[in-house]
Design brief:
The complex is a heterodimer of chains A (76) and B (445). Chain A is built from two helices and three strands. Chain A is α/β, with parallel strands linked by helices and 76 residues long. In chain A, strands 1-2-3 form a three-stranded parallel sheet. Chain B has one domain. The chains are: A alpha/beta (76), B alpha/beta (445).
């Protein structure tokens, strides 16, 4: 048993190809943990949502590469 | 409904007729005025420079001529255009003519000539995808065959710009210089003359039993130095759209992607896109060329990539495609839009062929593509990027005395005559473009 890893990336297909176990779908390619299109005061919410999702999935058992979406309207 | 069984009448592209009159050029030189005589093109060096200097953004212009096989290299290349002149007007719309649809009427071209503009573009933003890279074309040796200039009689405009221009203005100014000279030469050399050859491009009615093939052409456009112009404007935010292939042959697309030399599409390659001319040749015989879809890739959100793929594949379906040829330009995640489009075409029952360049690492044994889908099972390689190369010393460097390498490390100047060591082939001009024009071997069967 090694160290569990959550990988935040927009290119989830590539992460799957390299056999990353816990893949958190990032927002945009140059901004995986945020969204510059969202107003600055709301943008912090997006960041927190992505980071929390990554922490959550660290505790989940997975069978091979699994992609997790972030449930936040700004994280699309 | 299955693809191809019913084609909406509105999607037909017939009725657009382009007559391209070709004037073959086998030799170039300076002379007292522009004239084309028995395949030799002459031009007045000072008058051409004056034409470019009419634009007050340009501070210096010198004209050089370079022919195939010369012990020479051309550097600092911004773009290359084929001299063309639309007899009824409207040459290079959005640049030196009002914006009006091209692809119809009569166009004269100087075949075998390229107008190349060279300029040291400012390095204000180094390291990003909009960095103007060194663009190098070898005229001799094994690497010469891998760029379009080595086969051409080249008119090279060495241009310097005012240093107070924003990047967008620099990007426009070099193309205005290039396209002005391209139009002027074609007009003055061919007006009222009989051509050596005439090609007519018209998508006439084909036997309905023939398979309908659509060309899905994905171009890169990410702003200054990494853009493609469609009727003079960046197509950065373009939703996938239908274009008539004649528009592309007739100067609607102009390339500004100095950021991706090896994998860019110089304007002259758009003007002579071998997939377009090849599909035309087969039209009515082996297939029905059902149209061309133009789109942009390398969007940053996955939602944008999916939206583009849905739109492009939907247009292919509306054109009644049984088959689609997909190409993509430039690098990185731009491959994803093209492959998602391919995947969606296959799901709609449209058979696909995919053209792409490869990575593969320095020894060709590494992963070739950054992304793939299982539906892409008929792939044509247009070349690889990653092999290191050594450019030998040459007698003559055109474009500049030095080349600028490694912008991500702050930049390094090397004498342009060489030798020049490149850790990969990115800086070589037009080697593995999206249509593989330097390696294109069409076989008639």
């Amino acid at each position: 048993m090694g160290i569990p890893v959550a990988y935040i990336t927009t290119l989830t297909t590539l992460a799957t190809d390299v056999r990353a176990n816990r893949i958190v779908a990032g927002v945009r390619i140059p901004h995986p943990v945020s969204n510059p299109a969202v107003a600055p005061d709301k943008e912090i919410e997006v960041r927190v949502a992505v980071a929390k999702r990554a922490l959550d999935v660290l505790t989940l058992a997975v069978e091979g590469p699994t992609v997790f979406a972030v449930d936040h309207p700004g994280a699309r | 409904m299955t693809a191809g069984s019913a084609v909406p009448e509105g999607a037909r592209l017939g009725g657009t007729r382009l007559e391209r009159r070709s004037f073959e050029v086998s030799d170039i030189g300076f002379g007292p005025r522009i004239r084309l005589d028995d395949g030799r093109l002459e031009m007045d060096r000072a008058a051409l420079a004056d034409l470019v200097l009419r634009d007050d953004r340009v501070t210096r212009c010198d004209v050089q001529l370079v022919s195939p096989g010369e012990d020479a290299r051309i550097v600092h290349i911004c773009d290359t255009a084929e001299p063309q002149w639309r007899v009824e007007g409207g040459t290079f719309p959005g640049w030196i003519s009002p914006i009006r649809t091209v692809g119809e009427g009569v166009t004269h071209r100087l075949a075998g000539v390229g107008i190349t503009v060279c300029c040291e573009l400012p390095w204000r933003k180094t390291g990003g995808i909009q960095t103007p890279r060194e663009n190098i074309a070898e005229m001799r040796g094994p690497l010469a065959a891998l760029n379009p200039l080595s086969r051409l009689r080249n008119v090279v405009l060495e241009v310097a710009l005012r240093d107070d221009l924003p990047d967008e203005e620099c990007d426009r100014a070099v193309h205005v210089a290039e396209l002005r000279v391209a139009e002027h030469l074609a007009r003055e050399a061919t007006r009222g003359r009989e051509p050596d050859a005439v090609d007519v491009y018209e998508l006439g009615r084909a036997d309905p039993a023939l398979p309908r093939v659509v060309y899905v052409c994905q171009i890169t456009s990410q702003g200054p130095y990494a853009g493609t112009f469609y009727y003079g404007g960046y197509l950065d935010r373009l939703m996938p759209t239908i274009v008539h292939p004649n528009e592309v042959l007739d100067g609607a697309l102009v390339d500004g992607n100095v950021a991706g030399p090896w994998i860019r599409t110089p304007t002259i390659v758009h003007q002579n896109n071998p997939l377009v001319t090849g599909l035309y040749r087969d039209h009515g015989r082996d297939l029905c060329f059902a149209g061309m879809i133009l789109l942009r890739g390398h969007y940053y959100g996955m939602d944008e990539k999916y939206r583009v793929a849905q739109q492009a594949s939907k247009l292919a379906r509306w054109l009644g495609a049984d088959g689609a040829i997909l190409t993509w330009e430039n690098a990185g995640n731009g491959i994803m839009e093209c492959l998602y489009t391919l995947q969606e075409c296959e799901r709609l029952g449209i058979k696909t062929v995919f053209l792409t360049w490869e990575h593969g690492g320095a020894h060709g044994d590494d992963t070739p593509l950054q992304f793939y889908v299982p539906e892409a099972d008929a792939i044509v390689s247009t070349g690889s990027m990653d092999e290191p190369v050594l450019l030998p010393e040459v007698a003559r460097a055109v474009g500049s005395d030095t080349v600028r390498l490694n912008p991500q490390l702050g930049g390094e100047r090397v004498p342009a005559r060489g030798p020049i060591e490149l850790s990969w082939r990115l800086e070589l001009y037009g080697g593995a473009g999206h249509v593989g024009d330097t390696r294109y071997g069409r076989v008639d069967v």
